[in-house]
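[Meeting: bench + compute handoff]

Bench side (C.D.) handed over the final construct sequence. Compute side (W.E.) agreed to return the predicted structure before the next meeting so the bench team could plan truncations. Sequence as handed over:
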Amino acid sequence: MNNTQEQIHFTVNIVLGSDDEANFTYSIDGKEVTGGGVVRTETAGIYSLDEATLAKGFLFTGATITDVDKETPCAQDFSFKVSDNGRTITIIDTDENPGTACLVFNVECNGKAYKSADPQIENKEEK
């Protein structure tokens, strides 16, 4: 990570619904947020699982990042790194290309794989 990179720290809570789907909730400083957003500069989104989620056995395994609109591809701007034994995932966005990316988190709980719903990230030119 470089010195000019903006860092956004998210706390992630995962609850299994009655349909056995993983429901992801994101917060920053205790306030619920979408988990996505608009990026205007190189940014690192740092997503950390909360203690309740870790206690259930959830861990990050990766992320799937795709373009929403093939006319404005920007998925290649993104990379991810899982750290802290799966407790944290960092999504790096170089913000080189304008567009909107679909970001899906991959997690595992007691040997079963789950995916998040899509918090979309939009790259815009810096003003």
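W.E. noted at the follow-up: The chain has one helix and eleven strands. C.D. will use this when planning the next construct.
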